[in-house]
UniProtKB/TrEMBL annotation:
It is found in: Secreted. This is Retinol binding protein 4, like. It comes from the Eukaryota. Pfam families: Lipocalin (PF00061). Keywords: Disulfide bond, Retinol-binding, Secreted, Signal, Transport. The lineage of its organism: Eukaryota, Metazoa, Chordata, Craniata, Vertebrata. It comes from Callorhinchus milii. Disulfide bonds join 24-182, 90-196, 142-151. Residues 41-176 form the Lipocalin/cytosolic fatty-acid binding domain. SUPFAM superfamilies: Lipocalins. Its main location: secreted. Residues 1-21 form the signal peptide. InterPro entries: Calycin, Lipocalin_ApoD, Lipocalin_CS, Lipocln_cytosolic_FA-bd_dom, Retinol-bd/Purpurin. Belongs to the calycin superfamily. Lipocalin family. Gene3D superfamilies: 2.40.128.20.
Length: 197
């Protein structure tokens, strides 16, 4: 390959990489417009997940959301987790959500606590990317940003009101939203066998 073709190819690759990075800027991801926590409340089952780095629930993940009279949302979550590489248990977690900007109620901060000493506690973003409240919800969190504004370590969950799955029409919406948050092809199925009722 001659030198001019090599330079052209290098410039083209750099342009494509920059274009992809720009479309994956976390602060440009859209979230559910006019998010209503009361309609969101109730039980959800995780069907697909994209794990973050470190310990994360592996299967039978469910979350039940509650909204009190003041509008504060809390949740209790369950799921199986593998500890020490061999010990599989059902873990309980609790969380409370704060909305820093009332103009964007779908962008929350989540403070969570494991209900046993070996489970972690801390805080993450909790963004509701999309939901129809009755069938599906897509949540997203970026734990660590790269210098270019894309996510270096994050996770996402696809929830359903039904542990057996989503209708095909909704699956198309979910696939599009996975692309919108730059996680297409990175999700794995979540087993729902009823192991953690």
């Amino acid at each position: 390959m001659d030198y001019s073709k090599f330079i052209l190819l290098t410039v083209l690759v750099a342009f494509i990489e920059e274009s992809l990075a720009i479309s994956c800027l976390v602060d440009q991801f859209s979230v559910k417009d006019g998010f209503d926590p009361k309609r969101y409340s109730g039980k959800w089952y995780a069907l697909l997940k994209k794990d973050p780095e470190g310990l994360f629930l592996q299967d039978n993940i469910s979350a039940e959301y509650f909204v009190d009279d003041k509008g504060t949302m809390t949740a209790s979550s369950k799921g199986r987790v593998k500890l020490f590489g061999f010990w599989v248990i059902c873990a309980d977690m609790s969380a409370q959500y704060i909305v820093p900007d009332p103009g964007t109620p779908a962008k929350m901060e989540m403070a969570y606590q494991g209900l046993a000493s070996y489970l972690s506690s801390g805080g993450d973003q909790y963004w509701v990317i999309d939901t129809d409240y009755d069938n599906y919800a897509i949540t997203y969190a970026c734990r660590r940003l790269k210098d270019d504004g894309t996510c270096d370590d994050g996770y996402a969950l696809i929830f359903s009101r039904n542990p057996r799955g989503l209708p095909s029409t909704i699956q198309r919406i979910v696939r599009q939203k996975q692309e919108d948050i730059c996680l297409s092809g990175q999700f794995e199925p979540v087993l729902q066998s009823g192991a953690c009722p």
